[in-house]
Amino acid sequence: MAQKPSIPKGTRDFNPEQVAKRNYIFNTIRGAFETFGFQPIETPSFENSDTLMGKYGEEGDRLIFKILNSGDYLSKANGEAYDTKNSNKLTSSISEKALRYDLTVPFARYVVQHQNEIEFPFKRYQIQPVWRADRPQKGRFREFYQCDADVVGSKSLWQEVEFIQLYDRVFSALKLEGVTIKVNNRKILSGIAEVIGASDKLIDFTVALDKLDKIGEEKVKEEMLGKGISEDGISKLQPLFTLSGSFESQIESLKTILSASEEGKKGIEELSFINTAISELGLSTARLQLDVTLARGLNYYTGAIFEVSAPKTVKMGSIGGGGRYDDLTGIFGMKNVSGVGISFGLDRIYLVLEELGLFPETVNKNVAVLFINFGDKEALFSLKAINKLRLQGINSELYPDAAKMKKQMNHANKRAIPFVVLVGDEEINSNTYTLKHMISGEQHKVSLEALITLIK
After folding, report:
1. Alpha-carbon distance 132 to 141, whole Å?
2. pTM
3. Which of 294, 396, 439, 453 qualifies as a FRET site for 38, CA 20 to 30 Å off?
């Protein structure tokens, strides 16, 4: 007996109802992107390996899916690496391409490659799948969609303000209340590293700090010690682990902690500007919160960083994030082009909306009417009516086979189709249609105009 087929861990099939719900989220996000002036682009699902590698830090690089070279890839493999089982050197000799890890680095490549065609500042959005060789768990998949919006070519902090408003607009449209937009600034983290004497270990410091909500304070301290950050320096971090209160009160505390760091003070100034603007403009459903332990482990962030948390009633990781990257295109030779962007985590947003029952009942636009098939003559007559129903925007269908009546009616019931139409000799001769309401069981013989009106 043939083995039952399966799919790789961390990937999913989606049934029609799930696709309809996902499209509802896609369309909501896409509509907000376009309202805010962003234009769509698309990039390939895989890139040259050297485009991606080294852009996400050591941990990110390990999660990139590599694609084996075509043909006899081992014939060109690094012999020494193969013999010594050096996977890093071996991989580079047998794999020249990789699946994209996110949409931001491919976007930077796109900007550099098409710089002479782009009008700056350039506002783009992108809704496409990405792949990560991560350990699958709830809300974390190996293949998933990202919904990104970025602006390149402007250092204005008004962009950060607009992105916070954009988050708020989308979650308001999805009726998702209680969302928290956490914000920090990499300049503040640089300032903290400077104050504790760990400027040369900034990446190690931020990667460890970014795990605070996952592994806890003590484990974070252990990891920092393991990376060579001194006990004295770590003890100076203690006020950060307990920092709380309003946005404004935390800013005042930071001014004291970072009084000796010019870089840190610049970060405080930028956050104060954003908070003041949002306070004036207001938010509909989301809440802005300063979180000085927010680090986001990606190396390319240089300014404000964002992370969006779902309502506290739902156990879920972040449902969005992003930040400012002052020289991301510099990795491809195009210097001094500042950018800032955010991303929506579609799959996690889906799980949150599902758990809270926030999908509208109308999201799954089902077939409204099924025409029963009694034979070729009746089917042809029915299809003439179906064509007119479809022109009126009514989802209509003819059962393809002249099967038993009970089988066709059961098909309509299983698919929750609210109406069926029966057409026999009598209906053809009188140019009418028998409309049956599947829930009430009522039947009416009606004209085509009345049929359209009743179904609508």
Report:
1. 8
2. 0.86
3. 294
